Amino acid sequence: MTTQTITMKTKKPYGFWNWGTALVIVFILGASGIIFLVYQSQQMSAELVTENYYAEELKFQQKIDARTHANQLSDSVRIHDDGKGIILLAFPTECIGQSITGTIYCYNPSDSKKDYRTPISIDGKGLQVIQAQFLRSGSYLIQIEWAMNGKTFGTEIPFKKR
């Protein structure tokens, strides 16, 4: 008697998909995601708000006192953009005719290259002119710190340059 062996090919119901294939795909996707996140983190800027952040924080009480002094004035510093290339800062009436020293710092939170700093030099009407060409479009925080009659004053004004 002869024995015959019959071999039949059975078709797998899911082709090459099985738990091993799924595991490899999940591993590849996870590794790709991690590589992408590492790449993205390397592209982000990690600069501090100011270059001397920690030294500035030590002067925080002085900033609080300066803000308190500014709030005691009859009016706050106002800002006006005429849209024709001039930004006007109007100081309170107590500042008119006084000897004032200080700085105006236009701080752009998203890009330190857009920051601009200028000394205060108000005219006889209490106005400070800033040429708009020095500020690129974006959101700014105008930080004004000045000294007058032996007191320090400070204020911050949000400003959007178009």
What are the key terms here?
Immunoglobulin-like; about 160 residues; 4-stranded antiparallel beta sheet; alpha+beta
Q: Can you tell me about this structure?
A:
The chain contains 3 helices and 7 strands. By secondary structure, it is an alpha+beta fold. The protein has 2 domains: 12-44; 53-161, Immunoglobulin-like (Sandwich). The strands form 2 sheets. The protein has a 4-stranded antiparallel beta sheet. It is rod-shaped and about 125 Å long.
| Rg (CA only) | 32 Å
Helical stretch count? Answer: 3
Per DSSP E runs of 2 or more residues, the count of β-strands stands at 7
CATH superfamily of the largest domain: Immunoglobulins
Mean pLDDT: 86
Helix content: 25-40%
The biggest sheet amounts to: 4 strands, antiparallel
Uncertain runs: none
Strand content: 25-35%
What is the correct CATH architecture of the largest domain? Sandwich
Query: What's the CATH class label of the largest domain?
Result: Mainly Beta
Structural class of the helix and strand makeup?
alpha+beta
How would you write the strand order of the largest sheet? 4-3-6-7
- The tally of structural domains comes to 2
Helix-strand pattern: HHHEEEEEEE
From the spread of the alpha carbons, the general shape counts as rod-shaped
CATH topology of the largest domain: Immunoglobulin-like
Ends apart, CA distance between termini: 98 Å
